[in-house]
Design a protein that fits this description.
The complex is a heterodimer. Chain A contains 17 helices and 14 strands. By secondary structure, chain A is an alpha/beta fold. Chain A folds into 3 domains: 104 residues, no CATH class; 148 residues, Response regulator (Rossmann fold, 3-Layer(aba) Sandwich), CATH 3.40.50; 132 residues, Rossmann fold (3-Layer(aba) Sandwich). Chain A has a 7-stranded mixed sheet with strand order 9-8-10-11-12-13-14, with helices on both faces. In chain A, strands 4-3-5-6-7 form a 5-stranded parallel sheet, with helices on both faces. A two-stranded antiparallel ribbon of chain A has the order 1-2. In chain A, helix 15 links the parallel strand 11 and strand 12. Helix content of chain B is 43%, strand content 12%. Among the domains of chain B are: 182 residues, Biosynthetic peptidoglycan transglycosylase-like (Penicillin binding protein transpeptidase fold, Orthogonal Bundle); 274 residues, 3-Layer(aba) Sandwich (Beta-lactamase), CATH 3.40.710. The relative contact order of chain B is 0.09. Chains A and B meet through helix 7, helix 13, helix 14, helix 15 and helix 16 of A and strand 8, helix 18 and helix 23 of B.
């Protein structure tokens, strides 16, 4: 709930006028739609000054946020047109200001419990998106919401303008309390902009997209950066001074964090890419590095950012070329499979990899997890599904935790920034749900290959 | 005066007579001295002994395992026919034309001799021989062929003594078995084969007459070169027989009208098993320590292990499959700058795994054109046909056919083994790696097993060719003979027990004395590995037929197993396979080691020959009995890619305590391969 001062300041900001004069007085809208000059008390003045400063530090512009809507859609809102009229004619029109404030109350101070979702399935990831959405529904249901009413899903393509329009629709037409989306850079940018302009909280599901300028946008994604840091720290602790990084030429952005982490760790490294569809390309990439590996004094690391299948092949090629060389192989969650360790290969014993999932037996109970004798392995189908389910779980639980009390958007944003994980035992307990960089907290696990299995260390 | 005159005339006459007598005596002495100087009066005892003790030269013969002749060694071609086996018409024809009074004279026909001397007197040269068969025999055996009076006199003397020491039958037997009859043949037995391609016992009167006509001038009456002259001579012989009343007019007429079929002589050495027969010569020499010339004409009887029926099927299998070889050669030569100069050759070697006996051997496409025996002498890369050596070791080390291996492109010290297109960057079971003849997993496996161990195992399995301690050996990167490859498969086929290769069971001299004898039952085999390991490897090789490069003979898999082998650039193309009772190895390649191009492989070139060979053998009774499974093993059908037990897959044997179970590791691999990506790669976001 914003107070009268904030309403007033918003109205003035929207209009581009400022009435805070050197006399520390301000025109305040009365119930009869008249402006009344009020001398601010020092307390009011500080509050207003703080609010104004906060608003001025971000390029928010509620009027701009409706621009992506169509003419018909804007007509339904009524107020944007009047705001425009107000801007053009008379910024001191009390009547117009009154209308604006009514709408501001309606939009910004909305106490909706609806969640706007912009996670359109596109070619190649339909299954993953559907899994996330399904898990969000599960979490909403668990929290007592009706997902059919609470989740407002808009679909669009990867085009930025279309995503921006969809976001505006969610905010202004669907009156959602928060936005969730941003798988693609274009979507993340559109949602962030909309969040900033409309002061709507948004959870961005993207590992790398820049978050919005205001505190409204937060990232919810597996902690790739921290995984990379954990891995490089571990390598350093094992006295690894040299590393070679193998990755496919079509590697995704996960690699960005790894390379950045290694670069920052002081470990000397070189990269070798290959076309995973071309065996000779792989052989050439590996053979191109074996001379370097052979010449490295001490324990070199070979980091393979690819799946366990490719890991086995690359380890096979490396160990065949340098059968006597001791090498520490390392990688990420893509390594995780019984096939990494079976059949046994001596060369891969002692290898390390990081993962954002630990024991499959400890996952949230809303995620069905077939677990065999070994808690650290599940079926291939389940492993793929669970990665997205855990994202859906995180989004769903954060969203329900945010909107469950019927707060305004502003209050929701504040709540998200302050809550901790005590309500979700899977994630690091007592840690804030988001850190200072507005990144969602997430557990990081380190595994070691030993005794024909993997062990968490 | 008259009396004085008469007395003086009488004295003159006496004196003249004395002078004449003196002159005659002088001339006689001079002639006698001349004859003595020419050796006419030399002691005949030594020479006659040569004749009486004469052993009719006979070829050393090579017999197959049933006792049938498959080859012979000789300097001059003989087919000895004892007198009692010489057909009567043959003798009659000979006597009619050469010595009608043979049974009446004592070695010399004086009337004929008189005609001969008259010939000398009138022409100054010995135009007519006037020789009896005995004289011809003596001349042939003991004298030179020069036409001198002294030689003729010596011939007469020796003939006389020959008749005193030899029976008429023996003289005839010697004559008919030793006289030259053209085309390198000596005696009527050899001539029968040379001109008619049949033994003497099978000939008719017309053919006997033709042979009898040859004694006078084998070259002039050579039926192959001058058939008209031969027929004319035959008619003369027949007329002589009629004149001598040795047969009837009707028989003579029939014989004259009978068309004769002259077959070009193809020595048996070049027809049945030429490469084998040529090899056996060396084997005999090795066993007896005698050189080639001693073996020739010595009449040894060499009994071998060769199965003539198998050999004929092998011969046909090669002959019937040469067209594709020529087609490939023509195709390559027509397209590429690089040509294949030499003819593409093919060879088969078949042995009995239960004894090591050589059953059939085809060393090349055409013995006449190339005597190079590719089963013995040729050393070629065995390619993947060597792999069972390694897999036997792997099985012994506890690996199973369901074990997953990674088919990665690898480089071992610059050596980059290649796989068939599309096989790299996959994961397969050991059994599929074998069945599809993948190289890189085998090289990786060899490194784990240790190349020294691999080479030691190969030597135990019978590989005698040298192998270097190099990784490439694991996939056949060395020079081996077909015998080497055959020994490998014999060991597997015979439950891990290897017998040394052998081909000669007995060597007897012409008197029946056994000079060498080999009893395989007395030779303990070398146990290389257990029957269980042999069965495990065999089941893998059966999978080659059901799911691998040997699928063209998949229908044989219940009773046969085998492996292809293709060396770099298809220079050597192999198929080695076996049943319970037989091991057969086929090879195709060029003697100059030319590449046969991408289309060539063990499957495409060597396997069709093997297939025809085995099909032929089963048709003549080669058992097709399935193998028994050792008690400790059991058959399980597994997924050839990932090793999990499945309903439809490849069947292989496993130790009962190592039966494959459903594995999540293999499921994961399978899932990932189908997904063509990582299922734990976060596939959301840009």
């Amino acid at each position: 709930m914003i107070n009268t001062w904030q309403k007033t300041l918003l109205a003035l900001t929207l209009s581009g006028c400022s009435f805070i004069g050197p006399d520390r007085g301000v025109d305040v809208m009365t119930k009869s739609n008249t402006l009344e000059r009020v001398d601010l008390t020092p307390r009011h003045y500080r509050a207003l000054e703080h609010c104004e400063h906060a608003l001025q530090t971000v390029p928010h512009n509620l009027f701009a946020s409706v621009q992506p809507l169509s003419v018909d859609q804007r007509a339904k809102l009524k107020w944007p047109a009047r705001v425009a009229s107000y801007k053009l004619k008379d910024c001191e029109s009390f009547r117009m200001r009154g209308e604006i404030l009514e709408h501001l109350e309606d939009i910004y101070a909305s106490k909706s419990q609806r969640i706007g979702v912009l996670l359109p399935p596109v070619s190649g990831n339909e299954s993953a998106i559907q899994t996330i959405l399904d898990q969000m529904r599960v979490e909403l249901t668990r929290a007592g919401f009706n997902p059919e009413k609470s989740m407002i899903i808009r679909r669009t393509n990867k085009n930025y303008d279309d995503a921006l329009r969809a976001s505006a629709e969610l905010v202004h037409l669907d009156r959602v309390a928060m936005l969730i989306g941003g798988l693609h850079q274009s979507h993340a940018s559109a949602i962030s902009r909309m969040a900033d302009q409309s002061q709507t909280p948004a959870l961005i599901v993207n590992s790398d997209a820049a978050l919005g300028k205001t505190a409204q946008t937060m990232r919810v994604y597996p902690p790739l950066k921290r995984l990379a840091l954990r891995l490089t720290e571990t390598l350093k602790s094992q006295n690894v001074r040299n590393a070679i990084v193998f990755y496919p030429s079509n590697a995704n952005l996960e690699l960005y964090h790894l390379m950045k982490a290694i670069a920052g760790s002081g470990i000397s490294y070189s990269e070798a890419t290959y076309n995973p569809e071309n065996p000779q390309s792989i052989l050439s990439a590996v053979k191109g590095q074996t001379f370097r590996l052979a010449g490295i004094q001490g324990l070199p690391a070979v980091l393979i950012f690819d799946n366990f299948r490719m890991v086995r092949h690359i380890v096979n090629i490396v160990s065949t070329s340098l059968p006597a060389k001791q090498i520490l192989f390392a990688g990420n969650q893509q390594w995780r499979s019984p096939a990494l360790v079976l059949p046994r290969d001596e060369a891969i014993q002692g290898a390390l990899f990081v993962d954002f999932i630990g024991s499959y037996r400890n996952l949230p109970d809303t995620i069905e997890t077939p677990v065999s004798d070994n808690d650290y392995f599940t079926t291939a189908q389940a492993a793929s599904r669970i990665d997205y389910q855990i994202i859906g779980h995180r989004l769903g639980t954060l969203a329900t935790e945010a909107v469950r009390f019927g707060l305004s958007r502003h209050e929701i944003a504040q709540r998200l920034q302050s809550i901790n994980n005590k309500w979700d035992t899977y994630f690091p307990s007592r840690d804030p749900a988001f850190d200072a960089q507005r990144e969602s907290s997430w557990p990081v696990f380190l595994f070691k290959v030993m005794d024909d299995t993997i062990k968490e260390i | 005066m008259l009396s004085l005159k008469t007395r003086s005339q009488s004295g003159f006459l006496v004196a003249n007579l004395a002078i004449i007598s003196g002159i005659a005596a002088t001339l006689f002495l001079a002639f006698a001295t001349y004859l003595w100087s020419q050796g006419v009066f030399e002691s005949e005892d030594e020479q006659i002994k040569k004749l009486t003790a004469a052993i009719i030269p006979d070829n050393s013969v090579v017999l197959d395992r049933s006792g049938a002749k498959i080859g012979e060694y000789f300097s001059y071609y003989h087919v000895q026919v004892p007198f009692d086996q010489i057909p009567k018409p043959m003798i009659n024809a000979l006597l009619a034309v050469e010595d009608r009074k043979f049974f009446e004279h004592d070695g010399v026909n004086w009337r004929s001799i008189g005609r001969a001397f008259l010939s000398v007197a009138t022409s100054g040269r010995l135009k007519q021989g006037g020789s009896t068969l005995t004289m011809q025999l003596v001349k042939n055996y003991l004298l030179t062929r020069e036409k001198k009076v002294s030689r003729k006199l010596r011939e007469i003397i020796l003939a006389y003594y020959a008749e005193k020491n030899l029976s008429k039958e023996r003289i005839l037997e010697l004559y008919l078995n030793t006289m030259y009859m053209g085309h390198g043949a000596y005696g009527v037995g050899a001539a029968s084969m040379v001109y008619f391609g049949r033994p003497l016992s099978e000939l008719s009167l017309a053919e006997f007459a033709l042979l009898a006509g040859l004694f006078q001038a084998p070259s002039a009456y050579d039926p192959h070169k001058n058939p008209a002259a031969a027929i004319r001579r035959q008619h003369i012989v027949l007329d002589a027989m009629l004149a001598a009343q040795l047969t009837t007019k009707d028989h003579i007429a029939a014989a004259k009208n009978k068309p004769l079929e002259f077959k070009p002589w193809i020595p048996i050495n070049e027809t049945v098993a030429p490469f084998f027969v040529a090899w056996i010569r060396g084997e005999v020499e090795r066993l007896l320590g005698e050189d080639e010339m001693v073996l020739n004409d010595k009449g040894y009887k060499i009994t071998t292990t060769l199965d003539r029926t198998y050999q004929e099927i092998a011969n046909k299998a090669v002959a019937d499959n040469v067209a594709p070889l020529d087609a490939i050669q023509a195709q390559i030569n027509s397209k590429k700058k690089r040509k294949i100069p030499e003819r593409i050759e093919a060879a088969i070697l078949a042995t009995d795994p239960r004894s090591g006996a050589v059953l059939a051997m085809v060393g090349g496409r055409n013995f006449r054109e190339s005597q190079f025996n590719r089963t013995i002498t040729s050393k070629r890369s065995p390619g993947s046909s060597f792999k069972p050596v390694l897999f036997s070791l792997a099985m012994e080390k506890g690996m199973t056919w369901a074990d997953l291996v990674f088919v990665s492109p690898i480089d071992v010290g610059g050596f980059r083994p290649k796989n068939h297109k599309g096989d790299d960057m996959t994961e397969v079971t050991l059994i599929k790696a074998l069945a599809r003849s993948m190289n890189t997993p085998v090289v990786s496996l060899a490194q784990k097993l240790g190349m020294k161990n691999v080479i030691d195992r190969a030597e135990l399995m019978g590989v005698k060719s040298p192998m270097k301690l190099e990784t490439g050996v694991a996939i056949g990167g060395f020079s081996a003979s077909m015998m080497d490859v055959d020994a490998i498969y014999r060991t597997i086929a015979n439950d891990g027990n290897r017998f040394e290769t052998y081909a000669i069971t007995k060597i007897e001299d012409r008197a029946g004395k056994v000079l060498y004898q080999f009893d395989p039952a007395s030779q303990p085999p070398i146990q290389v590995f257990s029957p269980e390991i042999a069965a495990l490897v065999r089941s893998g090789l059966q999978a080659v037929l059901t799911h691998g490069t040997g699928s063209a003979v998949s229908y044989m898999s219940p009773y046969a197993a085998g492996k292809t082998g293709t060396s770099d650039d298809s220079r050597d193309n192999w198929f080695a396979g076996f049943t319970r009772d037989l091991v057969a190895v086929t090879w195709v390649g060029g003697d100059a080691n030319s590449s046969l191009g991408d289309a060539a492989s063990g499957s495409s070139l060597a396997l069709p020959i093997w297939k025809q060979f085995l099909d032929g053998l089963t048709q003549v009774g080669l058992p097709t009995t399935p193998w028994a499974t050792p008690d400790a093993l059991t058959a399980v059908t597994i997924d050839p890619d990932y090793g999990s037990p499945v309903d439809q897959g490849v069947s292989a044997l496993f130790y009962k305590n190592k039966v494959p179970k459903k594995s999540q590791a293999s499921d994961d691999m399978k899932s990932l391969k189908q997904d063509k990506g990582s299922y734990r790669e976060l596939k959301i976001g840009d």
